[in-house]
Amino acid sequence: MDKTNSLPRRAYKFMIYIVCGFLVLLSIAPFWIMFINATRNTFEIQQSAIAFFPSDSLFDNLKILVGKSFNPIKGFTNSMIISGGVTICTVYFSSLTAYALVVYNWRFRQPFFTFIMVIMMIPAQVTSIGFYQFMYSIHMTNNFLPLILPAIAAPTTVFFMRQYLLATLSIDIVNSARIDGAGEFHIFNRIILPIMKPAIATQAIFAFVGSWNNLFMPLILLTDSDKYTMPIMVSLLRGDIYKTEFGTIYLGLSLTVLPLFIVYFMLSKYIIAGVALGGVKE
Amino acid sequence: MKRKGVNYAKYGYIFCIPFVLAFLVFSLYPTIYTAIIGFTDLKGLGKTDFQFLDNPFGNFELILNNPSFQKSLSNTFIIWILNFIPQILLALILTAWFTNNRRKIKGQGVFKVMFYMPNIITAATIAILFNSFFGYPMGPVNSLLQSLGIIDEPSNFLVQGWTAKGIVAFIQFWMWYGYTMIVLISGVLGMNPELFEASDIDGANGFQTFFFVTLPNLRTILIYTLITSLIGGLQMFDIPRLFLLGGPDNATLTTSVFIYNQAFSGSYMYNRASAASLLMFFIIAVLSGFVFYIMRDKHAAKLEKEIRIQQREFKKALKENKKMGRDV
Question: Do B182 and A279 touch (CB under 8 A)?
Fold first, then answer.
């Protein structure tokens, strides 16, 4: 490979960096404009909609924002409760189901796994009418439970957890715990769950973010404004009440992006690794 | 596993109970309920009692002949295609660049993090953010295009149907190409490194290696990406709903937005929305059946490959033995 450093090669490599740099800019720019405009007032934004440096209207915008129906603290709290509940349900019960699929030798083990593969792709959205009518008839609309409990059956996570257990768990650990007289539930909670920590961390991130960003189900189930989640709060910014308050709209959007940014840049290593693992479903 | 007096199999059943219960109550029952509503006269806010229609397929006929539904179906496919083709092409190019052994690209970790970032941001937020960007007469996009001298006067992009469709497709593309790229890269990294060594030794250049070694081996993952993206695309809701509320003139109305509008705004036509949901359900079921088939196929292919490798090793061993025999 004596040509490695020839001029066309270097030019080509340079072009790759230019393209990647442009794509990075494309990822950052919308959020940069959003954060900057959150600190500017309507007049400034109407004069020129793009600025590189923040202005001084952040608190005025905040005052207008919370003066109307947008309540970031309530939205944040509600979303936290729902997403936290979903995350716990998803990782705990998926681990439990995966454990049952790997460790125990029961008659319907293989058919059950096939069944999980089959239902993996069914989206909740196409069954939403029946779900809504069912919840309405048992007076569970405006309640967080219908948004949390379905997470107990998360086929994709079970699939992932099963692959992880197959690769890492040695049955000797389970057997030696049995000899020590530990019960099956105890073994799962005290020995297996700690072993699964890396897989649980990855799946917890995805369960949390997925639930946090979900708009459809909360939108049809929650009609009481005290129960609104963050994405529903966001959708209020689209309404007439903030029509000309550009800075305020940008600020409201920024408040919903900020926590996700913090989580993402803290955990990006695990998230990227998780995407890579989840993509190649083997 | 051996059974030593204690029968552990029952725990297999016990540990699966929560999953099965949650599935039955929150997934299977609503599915059947949705299917039943599709054959009834259930409509109106707060109503739960219904009667079956005299013509059982009445709702389906109405939906299939509904111009808005037809439009939403074609919009969904158009927007999906406009987003998927550039997305898969860019993801493939980036994969080729990032997995080339000879041309080590620095900062790949940072690039991956940045490209994937839009995917984890709330889609509702992104829809409204882009709606603000295309503001008329003053919005960031108009300012940018004017200062670059591309347009002379501000343009109201959001009243033109095809432009609006294009922007929705662009948002989807922008949110998902990073994801697709990471999946493809992990697919390439999962391939047998001997393949690349062999093509290196044979003197193949980067393009040849990519087109004749990488791409054919990525086929399964590419089809998997295609179909899962299509299933995801059929459920596109947040962006088209909040970006332009399905407008202008239904140009960004997707099937999910159509179902939502039928059921939960204005007319509360639960029966028709259910019929439309059921149609979507069948399309998605067929597509997932296809994914399932491919993934099974992959396992079979893997097994075959292993057998072939074993046979090769076996033949090699035989040859070695013969050679040794001759030497002795």
Answer: yes
